[in-house]
Amino acid sequence: MVQQAASMMRYQQLGRLFSAQGSYLQDWMLEETDYNWRVDAGKGGASRAVADIGSHWCDTIQFVTGRKIVEVMADLSIVWPTRKASLNSAATFGAQQEEMQYESRDVTTEDMGFVLFRFDDGSKGSFSVSQVSAGRKNRLSLEVNGSLSSLAWDQEIPQQLWLGHRHKANQLLSDDPSLMNPDVAARARFPGGHIEGWPDAFRNMMQQFYQAVEQGKPASPGMSFATFRDGAQVMAIVDAILKSHQQQRWVRVSD
C-alpha cells in the first residue's frame, strides 16, 4: 500500500502536495528499568529515537511524496535522565524478571522528538518519534494532504490505505491487485483478502535489488529499493535534526 500511495502521488491523484505529517511510536523504552546500550551516545551514536526509527519515517515519506526534506526544526527530549541498568543478563525486548539488581546509568540519547520540516518544493510537514509511548509497539503512520484529496497509512494495519475526500465519502482501499494502480499492482502477491504485510514488503524490495544486480545496472524507474545515496541522505536529515535541537533553529540538510 506504500507503493500504491507513491503511485497515486506520481500520477497526481492527490493533486498538488500541501503537507505531510505522521509519527513513529514505540513503547519498549517506556520504563526507567528499560535500559539498552542505545541510551549511551558513546556506544550507539548521538541519536537514538530519531536515528533508529525517525530515519525510517523520513525515508518512507520521501518515497511516498517523491520530495526531499531540505530543512528541519527539531525539539528532542530525554524523559529518564538516568536509567536503571540490570546487573542480571536480560535481552532487548525481554520480559521483566523478579529479584533484579540495578545500577543507575546516564542517558545521553533522546527518548522522543518532534520535528517540523520543509520539502524541496516548498510544501511542509511535521512528525514525531517516541520510544516511550505506552501501547504503541511499532506504529509508523503517515498522512499526505493534497489539493484534491488525502491519504493515510498505518504500518500496523498495512493492508489498508485511507483516502480522504472533500465532496464524497472517504474510502478504505485494500491491497487487492485489481484495485491498485497498474504500475504497482504486482507488488500485491495474492488476491484481495489474503494476508500480506511487513515481511512481504522486504521480499518485494530484495527481488527488485537482485534483478538490478542480475542486469548489472542501477535501478530502473520501475524498480524501487534504497540505495547507498538514499541512506546517506537520510543520515544527513538525522544530523540536521540533532543540530537543530542543539541550536534551536532551522537547519538546512546537507547535500
Structural commentary:
With 255 residues, the chain is α+β, with helices and mostly antiparallel strands. The chain contains five helices and eleven strands. The strands form two sheets. Strands 10-9-8-7-1-6-5-2-11 form a nine-stranded mixed beta sheet. A two-stranded antiparallel sheet has the order 3-4. It is globular.
Strand content: 25-35%
Shape: globular
H/I helix tally? 5
Number of strands: 11
Using brief descriptors, characterize the structure shown.
255 residues; alpha+beta; 9-stranded mixed sheet; two-stranded antiparallel sheet; 5 helices; 27% helix; 26% strand
Set out the fold topology.
Blueprint: H1 2-10, E1 17-25, H2 41-44, H3 49-65, E2 69-77, E3 82-86, E4 102-106, E5 112-119, E6 124-130, E7 139-146, E8 150-154, E9 160-164, E10 171-174, H4 198-215, H5 228-247, E11 251-252
Parallel strand pairs: 1-6
Antiparallel strand pairs: 1-7, 2-5, 2-11, 3-4, 5-6, 7-8, 8-9, 9-10
What's this entry about, in short?
Helices cover 27% and strands 26% of the residues.
